[in-house]
Structure formats: C-alpha cells, structure tokens
Amino acid sequence: MARGSSYYNHTKVTEEHRRLRDAEARVTGADWKAIGPYVVDREWGVPREDYSPDGNAWAAFPHSHARSRAYRWGEDGIAGVCNRFQNWAMALALWNGKDPILKERFFGLAGPEGNHGEDAKEIWANEDATPCATWLRMRYVYPMQRFPYEKLVEQSAARTREEPEPELPDALEGGMAALTGGEFWDVTVEYGKASADEVLMRVRARNCRPASAGDAGTETIHILPTLWFRNTWSWGYDQRRPAIRGCTSAPEASSAPAAESDCRPHGYAAGAPPAAPWPRADGAASEARFVAWERHNGGMRWAVTVPEHLAPGSSSHSPGGAAEAGTAGASGGATGGPVLPGGSTTDASTARQSPRGTLARPVELLVTDNETNFVRVFGEAAREAQDSAHTKDAFHDVVTDCKEPCRGQVKPPHEAGTKAAAWVALSVPAGACGEVWCRLKIEGRRLDEDGVGERTRRAAAYAARAAVARAKGCDTSATAPPVAPASPVHAAAAAEGASQLRLSGSMVLQPERFEAAAGPGGGGGVGVTAALEGVDGGGQQLDSLLGLTGTPSEGSAGDEDFCFNGSASSALAERDSAGRLCKAPEAGAEAGAEAGAGAGAEAAPAFKPAVDMLASLPIPEATPMSELVAPHDAARDAALELLADSDRRGVWAPWQDFAQVMEARRREADAFYAALQPPGIADEDRRLQRQALAGLIWGKGFYHFGVQMWLDGDPRFPPPPDSRLGIRNGNWRHLYVASVVSLPDSWEYPFFAVWDLAFHMIPMAVLDGEWAKRQLLLFMREWMMHPSGCLPAYEWSYGDLNPPVHAWACLRVFQITRQASGQPDVTFLERAFHKLLLNFQFWTNKVDAGGKNLFGGGFLGLDNASPINRSELETTPGLSDLELHQADGTAWMAFFCSIMLKIALELAEHRDAYVDIANKFLEHFILISHACDALWDEEDEFYYDWAHVKGDRTPAFPIRVRSYVGLIPLFASLTISDETLRKLPAFQARMAWFLRHRSSWCASHVYSGRGARSPVLGVSITESAADLVREGIGPQGSADAPAVGMPVDSAPATAGAGRLRSKRSWAPGSCASLPGSGSSEQGATPGEGVHLLTLVSPERIRKIVSRMLDPEEFLAPHGIRSLSRYHLEHPYTFRHNGHEAGLRYEPGDSSSPLYGGNSNWRGPIWIPINHLLIEALQRLDHFFGDGFTVPLPTGSAEPPVPLWDVGSDISDRLVSMFRQGGAREDTASRAPRRPASRPAGAAAGAGEPAAGTTRPAYGSVSPWMDQVPALRELHQFYEFFHGESGAGHGAAHQTGWTAGIAKLIQQLATTRRTGLRR
C-alpha cells in the first residue's frame, strides 16, 4: 500500500489527519488505533461461545449467564474500549438502586424469544467519533425504575409474527410517559486520548427529571467504571495471569466513615478498617487508583475520581501534593498541537454553574477475578470445577445486595485480581448532572520521563530469573546488587535477603544492545531483556515468557494490524533516596545507541557476576507451561509493586490536564469533520452524516475465533460431543481470527458478515482509507479465505454464499483514496485482485457447476425474497428435483465480472501482464450477459428466477415474484473509454476480434457512442449513438436533449429537459465519492468516445426502470422497495410436487421465519441495494447522457428526467427518512419539499410521520427519538426501513451498511453545490 498519503482535502489537514498519517507510516509511538471502541455490545448467544451438543447458541449461553460466566473468545460491555487484541478492556457498569443486577451490558431478546428474532431492548446512540478514536461519545438512556427484564420477555412471547415487537417503553411502568416525563438517566460517555497509549474517560449522568421537582427529584446513581482482563488462562493453554490491584494509602488510614445508610466497604475481615483510596481535601474518599500488569502491554495505571472538588486547571490531590511535572495538556502529548487559550474548558466551567451531583458514599475499590461462577451457572454439582471464590459476578452482589455475606466475594483492594472497578455513588438533584473521570495509562512499552517504565521492566525480568534460580535450587545470594539501590523500595527489597526479589539495581542496560534488541525505532526485535549485559539465549525465551517482545503481529496472530513495541531511551534516569528525579538521561547515551557504540556504551557499568549466574539458567524451549507460571507471577508482582511505589511518590497526576485534553480532542474532532464535510450541507444533514460515520467507528469490534480449537475443545474441559463436527463450520478448520473487524451491528450481529463489510468500507474509505484497505484484504488472507476461494460469510455458517460484492468494494476504495490523495495505490489493488481471482473461480466452479453461465447461489443475502428457501432445495420435500437458475445470482456474477474487468484494465495500464486477464473477463462478461437473456420474461418484461426439473426436457418456468432479484441485473454494466483502448492496443485488438466474430452474443450487450463504426476498434458496433437517440434510447451530447420518442429533427424545446449541463466529470462507479469522484474522462461529453458493456439492453433498461419508478410497484416515498407493492393485492403462491409456499408484500417486519425472521426482503427499503442501484443509474447515465430520459415517477405529467437525476431523487428519498417531517430538497434550488404522497389506496404504515415534526425513520416504532427532548438530535441506523412510512426495522442503533447514507449526503451536497453530476 502507498504509505504516508492523505485521503482528505489537502488544503485542510487537521490534527486527526496527521495522526492517521503517522499511524499509517508506522511512526514509533503513534499507534493511534491500538486502543479503540473494540468491545462488542453482546458476546453471549453467539455461535463461537456455543459449546452445546445441539448447536443451540442462544440456549447454550443466555443473557442470564453473561454476568457470571467467563467468555471463551471475547468480552462485551457498555461503551467499552480495549486494545486491538483485547488483552484488557474498560467499560461502564451502572446501577439505578432498583435493578436486581448491575447494568454491565445492554439487554435484549434471544432469537427464539423475540417475535421477530433477536432484538436489543435498550436505547442508546453512538453520537461522535474520530477514526483514531481520539474522541468518542455515546449516549445511553437508563430508566430510573426497575428495568423490565422479565416483562419484555413475556410481552414478546405473547405476540405473533404479525404484531410489532414490544419495545422498552411498552414494558415500563407508565409507558412512554416514563421517558417523556424525564424518569431516566441520560448517561453520556466520552473518551479522549492524551497519547496513543493513554486514554481518558468521562461519564456524565444527568437526572432528567424537571428541575421544578426540587428535592423530591433527587436520585442516586451508582457508576462503576470497570477494567478487566480477557480470560486467557482458564482453557488449558497458558496459565499465566495478568493482575490488577488497588493503590492504597496506609492500611489503617480511614478518616471518613460511611454514613449509616450506606453499605460499608467490602472485602475486609470483620472489624478491620478498609484501606482508604486517595483522599480529597475535605478528607472524603473521592478517588481510586489501580496498577496492573499484563504481559503484552506491560505496566498499566488506572485512576477514577469524582471531579467536584477539582477547580479547572488545578492539580490533583495526590499524596505528598506532587503535581505532574510534564503533561500532555491540550497538545495531546505526541501530537504537538497548541495549548488551548485560557486553560480550562468551556464545557467544564459551564457545568459548574449548574447544580451538580455529590458523592453519596466514599469511592470504593473493588477487585475480583474474571472467572466463571460455576455454582451459579451450572448448579451445586459443578462446585468442584470452581477455581476461585472470587468470580466475575462478585460486584453484582456487593453493590446490589449490600449485605454482610457479600464481603468475601470481592478481594481486598491491595490483593491482585483480574477484574476491578471503582464504585462511585452520586446523589444528583433533578435537572443536575453527576460526573466521573477515569484515566488509563499504558506504561510498559516506553521509558517515561522519570524512568519508571524501564525500571519496571528490569525489575520484572530480574524477579523472573530469580524465581527460576530458586526453582532449580540455586543460591541466589550471589546476585545481591554490588551498589546501593536507587530508591527506598529497592533498598527494602535488597535487605530482605536472597529469598526475595532482586530489583533493578543489579541489571544495567547497554545502550547499543538495547537498540539492537528493540530494532529500528524501537519497533521490533528480540526484546528488552535480551539487551541485558551477559544475557543472550535465555533472555530471548524470557522475553516471550514475560510478553516483552510485543503483541502478536501479522504473521503470528493472523492480523494485519501492525503492532508496536514502543520507543524507549537507552539511558536510565536516576532518583535520589527520596525518589526525586536527580539525573536526566544523557544525550550521549542515545547518540551512542544510534551509532552502536560511543559514550553511552562506555558509560554503562557492568555487574557481570550477578547476571552471569542468571544467564546460566536458560529456560528450555520444552519447559512445561506450569513451570513458567511462577517466574511470570514473580515478575508481575515486582512490576505491580514498582508501579504502586511510584504512584505513592506522586509520579502520576492524572487530573491536572484532564479537562484540557478532553476539550482539545473535542475541538479537533470538530475540525476533522469540518474539513471532511463540504459546504452546502444543511445542519440537520450534517449532524446525520457525522453520526453515521461515527457509528462505523463505534461499530468496530475485536473478533476472536479459532474453528479448530472450537471443534476439538479446550484441554481443561471435557472432549466435545461428536455432534459438534456436524453443527456448523466443520470444513473451516483453517480459520483463526484475532482481529478488529467492522461489524454489521455490535449487538444483533456481533460478528463479521463479509458482504455487509464491503458496504461499510465505502464510507470508511473517506474516514480512514488505509484501514478500509486492510479490512478488505484481511478477509482474503489465507487464514480467512477457504482454500477453495470462498470468502467466509458469517459466523452462523461461513460457507453460505453472500452476493460477491467484495471486488466492487476493493475497486471503490481504490477510486476514493486515489481521488483524495492524488496517488493510485496500485499495490493494494494488485494484492486484492490476485485473491479475488480465486474467489471468482470458486463461484464459477461452485455455483455454475453445469457450465451454462447461469448461476444459482441460494439465498444470496436476500433472506426471504423468494417464497421458497433457495438454499435448501435438496432437503425440502417436493423440491429436491428442481434446479434453480437465479436472476440475481447470474446478475451478481456478471457484476462481479464487470468489476474484475475494470480492475484488470486499471492494472494493465501499469503492468502489461494484466491485459490477457482483462480479455478473459471481457469475454466472460459477454457470455454471462448473453446467457442471462434466458431469464427475461417477455410477458411481464422483468427478470425472474427460473426453475426446471432435473433430467426433464419440459421447459423451465419462471417464479413470478417482482423483487430486487429482477432489479439487480441493472448493476452489471461498465464503460470503457477510447483513451483506455489506445493505451492498451493488445486489449483493443482482442476486443475488436471478439466483437467481429461473436457479434450475435454482443448484439444486445455492447454499445458505442461514436456511431456505427468505432474509429478505435475498427468494427461495427450494434446501434450507433444517433440511432439510439432517434429511438428514444441512446446518448445525446446536446444539453437540449429531445423528449423521449421524438425524432431528433422535430423535437421541440421542453422545459426542464437537460436542465443540468451535459459536460460533467464522472468516474465509473462513482456513487457518492468523497469529496469527489475523479475520472480519467474528465469533461467528456456523455457517450462520446465511450463504449458501454451492459447485461441489460437499453430497451429492457427502460422497461425495468419504468416499473421501478412506479409508486404502485417499487418506488416508495423513501426509496426503492425490495418487493413490488403489486404483491399486496396479488400474493404469489408457488406449487410443485405437493409443496406450496406463498409470498405477499409486507412493508415492515417479516411474518416468515426464514433465516431467523428478523430480516425482511418482502417490501422494506434496504439502503445497500438502493446504493448499488444509484451507482448503476450513474454508470448508465455516463454513457447515455441527457438523451435517455424517463418519467419520474412513472406516469408523471412532469418532463422526464435523465438517469442521473433518477439516482439523485432516490438518494434524497433515502436521506429524507432521517429528516424532520421527511423533508425533501429540490435538485436545483435545494428548497425543502414534502415527501411523495402514499400511493392511492395504500394502507397507512407503521410510523407515519406527523406533519413537520417527527422523523419517518422513527415514527411509531421508536417515537421516543422525537418525543424525548434529549434524543431529538440523535439517530439510530436501522437494518431496513418500512416500505410505506420509512420507519426503521430490524437491527437498530448502528447497522453498518446504513451508514452509506453519509455517502449519499455528501454527493447530493457536492452535486448541488457545483452543478456537476458526472
């Protein structure tokens, strides 16, 4: 891939753009995407966590298990962030004082529980985000009353598929009034990064009761920021555990006893006073601090506070009053940005002018383990399997029960665990806001300003080797440091004798060896401890033991995310006996390290006797894991003690610049989107677009799964039943994933779906083109793609066939990034093309086994679009004798072929070797297009699926269902310019030969814009441009195009015809490119010097488009329906061999159980298919121009419009679903207008918008989005939309492909601003 290129407006490069550029260039210390919102909203109920004998994933791991049972493959949480391999995670838990459990994760119904399949039953919105996750914001509505878990399940069970889903307000006491009356907490979670490995979290909980409620409106909310480690130690592979523990002051110090009404802090022996968290000025405990060690990330610090006592810009009250010496401040550390004027933030100062929440009890540190509570989950019989009395669900009992027996369920905070939380209880008046701040700093991968980070690593390495020596019976007394330790903690440890840990005084780094070990820029190499004097072979193995060599990289972890070991100075800072910094790192040391010798190396003292003994104790490669646990734990505990000691000495002051950093990141996010969004977008559309793009970033998730490990079972657990081999994915043993991927929906679909992801990457390419490319390549890597060439579809069945849109996404991402950067990333396109060739061959071998160029493919993503299950004909009684030739399957393959041809031509301009493969795809496209003519029904003038009986000579018969199946053939078209043909004479010659000698195949599928004989090809092409115009079909270069069907000579001037200028720039497949499309045919007259390859002839294009734009068929007020409205009055019934199946128009939720029943392709509007339709219309318009016009809508008395205007109209209809009142904008004047009226006789659909006030996407399905003031400017991006009203259905909150609406907004604004359409 091209490195260091910008994908954005070159005249507006913001701080976020610079971070993206640095991250792409792999600048050391600039791995800005290492931490992000990669924690999914739901891990329970997914197939990867299903270890049942029958494959019932929902029952195998239900929601009731989630709080008590350790996940095998990943973690979930509310507003969670983690590192890219999810070694650790940080998220939010809440308690309203009434729920039986903590709110640690969003609740929803399992697939069998919902009357329309699985469904989240909470209200939240992802409001803002930047590509590097340097700024994130989400909102959550948390009811003050007891959450109606049971009632939601009961209501759904009582409803049929014909009834709407019950939603949260339906189950609340008081119904919708509970929300409109403010009986909820408006919880806002924001994240900002001070550096690439330091993240800040701010939680604000607003009591939404009206301020007029006075004292009676005061409520208490419990906020528990939680940090934990993914359980990797319980499965029998690696027992080494990370650890987190509280940092406390003197154990006897506790000057603020809890009020009688409060629960006393838990985790201590009866009668023992708790260790107090950091005190604030008035003596109350308002802050909690933790230190942690994880072998891939090293040392970590985490702090939580209630900021009511902190004035803007003041120092934190850390022990000893030590303020932070050097801070990132508003500059964001490594970013180098300017400090904001005034220091304090407007946000913070404004908040302090209003009533604020106060602490209801001292902040308490809670520690437990991320372990399964076997007794609670599996019953008393499973008690023997319980490893620890401290389990994952301990905080639930401690906080919600507040009873004495719960004390033992959490650990004392100074003991190490694997899950921790700070329990903050805030009393908040009506209309006021409580606030909690958190800060997490990863220390283990760099030398910080006072040397603590390097001391931690050195101490950990020494401790591990000492543990190995003790295990082998060696005398460790000889390893005593020959010089005085550098700090009190070192001296104390040295005085404790040989049985204790020897810390960093006995090990010294040689600068040149450290640089060699770390690699260029500190970004790789054998690791830290191998650079210790006298340590070689054994040290490298110890690096692996301690995790000091970095997280897994591309080759070892199956991920293309590049990892960083971080930067570290080779010279160590020194401290005096009081722990104060007394010696800064010497510049000469670093200079010597660069040169591999010099002053730095000469100045390094050597304590070889101490180290040589340890070096003689290498850890053999075959050492059992059980023998490695003790040295790992020793190293871990030493690191934790050093981190805690430095915290006590005031090394870290996390709150000094907290408000400034958060405000700086917010302003930088504003600047980033200001550079991204073109002028002319209405404020309402601007907010919509920004939230759609932000939702894509929140929609990233860590996906971890190894199919072979899942099939074989884990060593610590009983062998799996034989039935597991036949449940799912048994022939995908090669697949192992540990990557951040773009999810279809973080709750309903918390796993990848390859065709969803293709649509995600189109808008993602605008935000972060480099990540979009790597995502597309990831799914074609050898650990993902099946050896047959099949791309993994989705977790329920990797082998299912989704529409082959991956090639299209690769081409579009290439075009978007080329346009924005000015440089084509040919390497990316070439890498993708090689793997796409394998995928194309899979399709031709698998789906066209008969070699007829007529394809099947099964459901192909359109779950219930057919009356029969197209994926299970062989196993369906009465249908096993049928063979199905699918119009959509064949058209998808023609589309795939056209994209491969386009890519091959692009690559051929750089490498001649691709000319031959371009010839192959040209001919294959014609063959498929010619074969598809057999699927055209002359009677209905539409494409259908055709079935015929195997081995029977009786004619095939059509399945006369008017659906997207018959519109998809429009996608298969492309244009080739004369300029391209001149550059590729070999391709030109072969194309000319093919047209001359296979003219019968090409007659309806190849057209030229230069007349009967192409001067470039030198052969006769079908109709000339002039002939097509005379027939009312073809291109016309004049801006005054004739009306359809009128002879050129006699066409009168028609008002409105050709109202857009005819000479415009346009790139093939340029639907909604950001900020523009880019083209090699800039300024070309449509049709002039351009050749069209199309599956659908111009005559048929007109007939299909006419049906598509008929309001009684496909054209809805808010887009193109998936099934014709014709089937409302004319249901279709399929009968064969006693099998009968019906289908009718259903504009909302599905009444069919096919594929879970939570999706519906029998009437609703789907944005991704509409997106492809819009692109198809634009490609055709590029050739035909203003001469090819159609009525809009069909039957309209208004002047007909070109195909580009049809595409723009559909775009605007789609966007209007999210606008107040469903407002539309005129193409030319941008004047708001009402949506198209509902067809005569149409039934009022669910969610019919009230005039001018509500947004159609929410309607009566989720009216709280318009009726609750706090939510009126927020959006949820549904899976699909009602075919009449536009109300959202299916997966809610953030369905990734619905974010394509952002692309449509961008193109509409750009087109209207510039007057250019092509």
Q: Could you explain the architecture of this structure?
A:
The structure is a single chain. This protein is of the alpha+beta class and 1318 residues long. 30% of the residues lie in helices and 14% in strands. It has 38 helices and 39 strands. The strands form 13 sheets. An 8-stranded antiparallel beta sheet has the order 6-7-8-9-17-13-12-11. Helix 20 runs antiparallel to helix 38, helix 24 (806-821) packs antiparallel against helix 25 and helix 26 (887-908) packs antiparallel against helix 27. The protein is globular, with a radius of gyration of 33 Å. The two termini are 28 Å apart. The model is unreliable at 1-8, 250-284, 310-353, 445-451, 475-619, 1022-1086, 1227-1251 and 1313-1318 (pLDDT under 50). Residues 247-281, 309-361, 1052-1086, 1222-1259 are annotated as: Disordered. GO terms for molecular function: Glc3Man9GlcNAc2 oligosaccharide glucosidase activity. Residues 249-281, 311-328, 1237-1257 have a biased composition (Low complexity). Residues 749-975 form the Mannosylglycerate hydrolase MGH1-like glycoside hydrolase domain. Residues 329-340 have a biased composition (Gly residues).
Question: What distinguishing features does this structure have?
Answer:
Mannosylglycerate hydrolase MGH1-like glycoside hydrolase domain-containing protein; single chain; Glc3Man9GlcNAc2 oligosaccharide glucosidase activity; 7-stranded antiparallel beta sheet; 8-stranded antiparallel beta sheet; disordered N terminus; alpha+beta; 1318 residues; Glycoside_hydrolase_63
